Amino acid sequence: MNDGIIDSHCHLDMPAFDEDRRQVLERARSAGVNGFIVPGTTRESWRKILDISASEADVYPAFGLHPYFCFAHNTAQTEQLRALAETTRPVAIGEIGLDFHRKDLEQKRQLHLLELQLRIAQDLNLPVILHTRKAHDQMLKLLRQYSLKGGVCHAFNGSWQHARQYMDLGFCMGFGGMLTYERSSKLRALAAKIPLAYLLLETDAPDMPGAAHQYQRNSPEYLPEVLDTLADIRPEDRSSIARATTANVKRVFALPDRKPPTADPPDG
Ligand SMILES: [Zn+2]
User: Fold this and answer.
1) Each residue of 60-92: pLDDT tens digit?
2) How far is the CA of 151 from the centre of ligand 1 (A)?
3) For 255, left (φ over 0), alpha (ψ -120 to 50), or beta?
4) How far is the CA of 15 from the centre of ligand 1 (A)?
5) Residues within 5 Å of ion ligand 1, judged at the Cβ atom
6) pLDDT tens across 176-216, in order?
7) Where are the chain's structural domains?
8) Ligand 1 centroid from CA 118, angstroms
9) Does domain 5-252 have CATH number 3.20.20.140?
10) What share of the chain is helix, strand, coil (3-state, %, to 5)?
11) Is the pTM of this model over 0.85?
């Protein structure tokens, strides 16, 4: 196992990276980031993510329908998701979830789409990448109804009680740029308390920039700043946290040491 760290959640397919995606990846690799998990958000995102992961050996695709865009998603798309995941075997089903913070997103619709996608993850024996805001109790209740391989609570924002229940279900907690703000005292306390075996590093780029890049585009090249913050607030040293979080992300997503060539996706 090498010494690099892995960005467990970055949206490299987004238009914000269209101009300089290659350079961003190069700079991230130079900064010691040598793996990138790119979760899908809409049906349209899947092909672009496949294309990027086909040409970049350290980019790993996940496919899902994000709750932000639930009004554009439908049952037919979840069937396409199942077919695509069956043929291409992404590292996870995601980004899927519940966002009850956003009042404009109908909760019933979000729940329905999430359930269809949890079923796919269960049937295909794939982990899930979860986006959950103001809905942790509902999410935990749902997760208990499926037999899942675990996954990650991306940008974890729940309580310690929630974290314990997720860990019991085999889920890791992802922490990113929010942690780098000194005012994030509650989040920092939580990230310091969670056992090292359940921690993942992420940026959520191009969103959620850290303290050193406020109001700018976030980028996987800034992932070492999340690691630095964890080293400041936890008892372990920086390289132990780097090694452990890399081992965690490889375990959760069953990442191969060397990725086989990506299969061609079916049309549609
Ligand atoms: Zn995301």
Assistant:
1) 999 999 998 888 889 999 999 999 999 999 999
2) 14
3) beta
4) 14
5) 95, 204
6) 999 999 999 999 999 999 999 999 999 999 999 999 999 99
7) 5-252
8) 17
9) yes
10) 45, 15, 40
11) yes
